[in-house]
Amino acid sequence: MPAIETIDLQREYPARRGAGLRAVDGIDLAVEPGEVYGFLGPNGAGKTTTVRMLVTLLRPTGGRATVAGFDVATEPAEVRKRIGVALQAAALDLLMTGREMLELAATLHGIAPESVVDRGGDLLERVGLSAAADRRVGTYSGGMQRRLDLAMALIHEPEVLFLDEPTTGLDPTSRLTLWDEVRRLRDEGTTVFLTTQYLEEADQLADRVGIIASGKIVAEGTPASLKAEVGAPHLDVTLVDESHRDAAREVLARFGDGRPPTSDCDLSVALPDGSAGLAPIVRALDDAGVQVATLDVKEPSLDDVFLNKTGEHLEGADAAPEPEPEPAA
Fold first, then answer.
1. Could you read off the pLDDT of 16-46 as tens digits, one per residue?
2. Contact criterion met (CB below 8 Å) for 327 and 141
3. Is residue 176 classed as helix, strand or coil in its secondary structure?
4. pLDDT tens, 163-193?
5. How far apart are CA 278 and CA 186, in angstroms?
6. Structural contact between residues 4 and 192, judged by C-beta atoms closer than 8 angstroms
7. Strand (E) or helix (H) holding 6
8. Given strand 83-86, what is the order of strands in its sheet?
9. What residues contact residue 174 under an 8 Å CB cut-off, 6+ apart?
10. What would the pLDDT profile of 192-219 be if each residue is shown by its tens digit?
């Protein structure tokens, strides 16, 4: 039995006049137990709405969904007992200490009183907050608060864990720590449903990836299989002189289909012949008098998959997470 399953899942918001807005338009998903499933989509694609339905915060208006074998609409209490949820907006009391927050969460989940202290201490150590355990949460950085929120989501050892953009605001070291924790959870048999704006994160962690656009699943598969579908690598070109852009575009059009450039380059073109097609392009650009600063051949990535399926780059795909300094413990 899938850990998460949706069949024709829909969510429509009513409109004052005419048809309502269908934010989720009949999606089918099946996430296996112990799998890390990466869920990608641009803002407004239906990603957050889907997650809110799966964690019982929003009721579907069509189709059905089950989590841990229970229906999210008719058995929400049973679903909540079996899931952990770490959403972007963490529900933390800034006046309590990290240890107090975890012990409160353990008590609310019905964990035996004699186990509460040990369970909280173990999780504080797992997420790297032992040194800050007795400080008020209001003194934590945003990254520390997200790690505490993750620990609270794990306090009752859930079967299924929902992580909504978990590394936003984390410094590079904390990102890697959280990645290791996600891998450890998978090895322990926990199913993880991960939404992220960072394609590298999905590539590193997800066993399978689903891409949603305009409320529909437009691609699904392992990162490797999705990248293989895209095929050939592409060439990113940065120019010395912006006035050469049109001439460079005309040259590149002879060798492959143009692609929307990222913020790191001026022009981008598919390379049907791979790296072997680079030398003729260099000669043609030189003959046309185009001055080039850099030429970068890139193998297919999940961003290429996203571009191929949706016609746009994923927001934040070419941006590294902003490091956030961690206050001294």
1. 666 678 899 999 999 999 999 999 988 788 9
2. yes
3. helix
4. 988 887 677 877 888 888 899 999 999 999 9
5. 41
6. no
7. strand 4-13
8. 83-86, 160-164, 191-195, 36-40, 208-213, 216-221
9. 128, 143, 147, 167, 326
10. 999 987 888 898 999 999 999 999 999 9
